[in-house]
Design a protein that fits this description.
single chain; mainly alpha; Four Helix Bundle (Hemerythrin (Met), subunit A); 2 domains; 77% helix
């Protein structure tokens, strides 16, 4: 991802070493983007555990444990996620900040960034309620799942705008590229994707059919 945003360093890096085993230096966004990736995974995972805590397949004690664990993970990693996002936004190049504020195409991405802040704050609150209050209500899990989806949507829109404007400032217009689609590869991907969904569906059906007999045998 770092090299994708910094094409100007490619020639120097690969002239120095053809192994491709080094990161470019001097990019102030690398560390906050790395923290965003790590904290974001834990954040969404915690909200997922909160959602599971509201399912009827667990005992009351299991639900409280899951809500407490998932909520604390979502709260703590969410605070780090929010801080890393603010850090990453603050160190963006001037051209990117100006584009998000004034470019007719990417002003929407700038608004999406504010939406991301709001939704992350709400999700952090959901994590705090579930984690420290050990609340297992189904509505709280669904609220966390919905906010997580909105967080990902707004973040994707904002990140796409940042990427496009970063490359535009270096002479690469992503909307003015010649694209030659390899339809064979696209078709193979779609075939494997549909096949993977079928396998997952079959595995879920096997688990669902085996659950009751296993419970009966255990009793």
């Amino acid at each position: 991802m770092t090299l994708m945003l910094r094409p100007e360093v490619w020639r120097e890096m690969y002239t120095a070493s053809g192994a491709g085993a080094f990161l470019p230096t001097g990019d102030p966004t690398t560390t906050p983007r790395w923290l965003l990736m790590l904290a974001g995974g834990l954040f969404i995972g915690g909200l997922w555990i909160v959602y599971l805590a509201g399912r009827s397949t667990f005992t009351a004690e299991e639900k409280r444990f899951a809500a407490g664990l998932g909520g604390k993970i979502a709260f703590l990693s969410g605070v780090l996620y929010l801080g890393a996002g603010l850090w990453a936004a603050s160190v963006q190049p001037v051209a990117v900040k100006a584009g998000l504020a004034t470019h007719p195409l990417y002003k929407f991405a700038g608004f999406a960034g504010y939406g991301w802040l709001a939704f992350v704050a709400v999700a952090v609150a959901v994590g705090a309620i579930a984690g420290f209050g050990r609340v297992t209500a189904g509505w709280l899990g669904w609220a966390g799942a919905l906010v997580a989806l909105l967080v990902e949507i707004t973040f994707t829109v904002y990140r796409d705008g940042v990427r496009d404007l970063t490359l535009l400032s270096k002479g690469y217009d992503v909307w003015d590229r010649a694209v030659a689609t390899n339809w064979g590869v696209v078709g193979l991907f779609l075939l494997l994707f549909v096949g993977g969904l079928g396998v997952i569906g079959w595995l879920i059906s096997v688990v669902a059919r085996a659950q009751k007999p296993m419970e009966g045998a255990a009793s």
